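Subject: sequence -> structure tokens, single chain

Hey, anyone have a minute? Need the predicted structure for the following. Not urgent.
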Amino acid sequence: MRLRLLRRRLTISAPRVAIRSALPWPLRWLALAVVFGFCAAVALWAFEFGKSIAGLDTVSRDELLQLRAEVDRLRAEGQEQQTVAHTAESLLVAERAAKESLMAQVRQLETDNRTLREDLGFFEKLIPAAKAEGLTIRSLQAEVLGGMQLRWQVLVIQATRNAPEFNGRLELVLTGTQDGKPWTQTQPAQGQPLQVKQYRRIEGVLDLPPSAVVKTVTARVLEGSAVRAVQAMTID
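Reply:
Had a minute. Here:
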């Protein structure tokens, strides 16, 4: 029996023997994690080292800083230009408003100047002429409008100081031709009532008969049946 057992152990048919480590599993996992971490660290170091050798990291960082600086500069310039545009627009609006205001003032001054000239001419006519006494017609103006109407204006004054109020009537006598024949008409037919203390300006527009051509206009101031003042003018 002993010989058989010895032979079995020494021959090929002897049973296999397995040798196993006595290292626990947690330690194995820890060791494996350390190995993987070391490999990752080596790979990261190699990558960073390669970037530093190639100069890629520095160039990219510098370019990024330059781009950021350029963006900030362009943004600042855009804001400045926008501010300038708003300021220019405000100045343009203010200048336009000032121009319109000046034009309105100029038009108003022109109107006032024209009115003052008319008033000056009117009051110049109020100055009594030499040796003028009583009621007189100082001005008679008339013009034909479109061949259909006559616009007229009469200025009557009393040259005497503290003269009593005059009560009478005013007549306009129109002479000319109608259909090639002599023509005369009094407007208004019964005369226009007229009261004058110192001066009185009367004006109006008359409708002319068809085909009538006015050549002379005569203004007459009457008191009852007596003619107190007369003035005539020729229509060109």
